Predict the structure.
Amino acid sequence: MTDAPRLAMLKAHLSRRNFLGAAAATGAAAALKPTGLLAQDDRPWDGSLVSYPDPAIEVIDDRFAPYRLANAAVERLATGFRWAEGPVYFGDGGYLVWSDIPNNRQMRWLEATGEVSVFREPSNFSNGNNRDREGRLLTCEHDTRRVTRTEHDGSVTVIADEYDGKPFNAPNDVIVHPDGGIWFTDPGYGILMNYEGHVDEFELPEAVYRIDPDSGKVEKMAEVEKPNGIGFSPDYSTLYVSDTGGTHTEGHPHQILMWDVVDDGTRITNERQFTDVGAGFVDGLAVDVDGNLWCGAIFGGLFDADDHDGVHIYAPDGDLIGKIHLPEPCANLCFGGKRRNRLFITGSQSLYSVYVETQGVAVWANDN
C-alpha cells in the first residue's frame, strides 16, 4: 500500500495545474512535438526530470511489482488533441497510429524521431484501430457507421456497415482472432453527438459482432448495454469487453464482462462479470502475455475519484493490482515497441508511453 510520503509525492507529480499549465504555454504549433517525461513538480528548467522509481506507477498488489521497471518513467510523447483513441503499433514501419476523434483525423508518431503528423484526414471520425492477420489497418468509423480495412496499397475496403439490413450505430473498438475473425463493439457513442460523428437514430441494439474471415458474414455475438473496449486472453479462450453502460443508464454496473470462447473461436458463452471497476469507467483495454488486463480508466472525477484516471491493471482473477496515474482520462492503449514491451496510452488530449516488464499478446501474423 502507498504510505503518506509516497502519496504526497504522487500528488505533486500529478498536479493538474502544473501539468496543464505547462501544456497550454507551448501553444498550438508546438503541441504536436515530443514533450518528454511527465513533470514531477515546478522546476526552473523544462520540468522533464522524474525521480526513479516513477511515483505515477503504483503497485497495489505484489503481483504487479515484477512488471514495474524501477528506471522507466511515464513519457508524454505529444499533446494538442481533443479526444485521442484507438492506438495501434506498426513495428514493420516503426510508427504508431491513433485517432483524434473530434478533429476527424488519424495521427502518426514516428518511433525513430518522435515526429507527429497527420496520417489520414478526414478519417470519418474514426475511433478504434487494430491490424488484421496480414498487417492491414482495421478502423472503426463513427461518421460512416462502419468498419474498414486499409489495404497495403492504401485503398480502403468496407468490411462491415450493417447487420440484418440496418446500419450499425457507431462501431467503437476492434480485435482480431487467430482464425482471422474480426470482432468489434458497437455502443453507438458516435451518433449521440456531432462532436464525435453526427446525431442519428439507433436502429440496432448495442452489441458485440464478429466478421467471418471467409464469407464476410456479420454475426451478433452478444448484446451489451454499452460495449466498449475489447480483447482476448492470451490463449483466446476468453473474450473481455468493457461495459460503459453506466454513462447513460443510472445504476448500471461499472464493469468488465467476460465470456468463454467456444466452437473454434466462432461463438461465446457463459457471460459473467470479470470485475467491477468502481468509480469512473474502463474504456479500451489490452492484454499481456500473462493474461493481465491493462485498462484505460476515465471520468473518475465525475464520481469524486480524482485518482481514477490513467491505466488500471487487473490480474486474470479480476483483482486490481496496479495503476499508472495520469493527469487526464485514458481512453485506450496498446503494446508496441520492438519487443512489445512499451505501453502506448492515448489520454484525452495527449499520447503517453511507458516501458514495462511484460509483453502484449501478438496482434498479427508477423509479430515477433
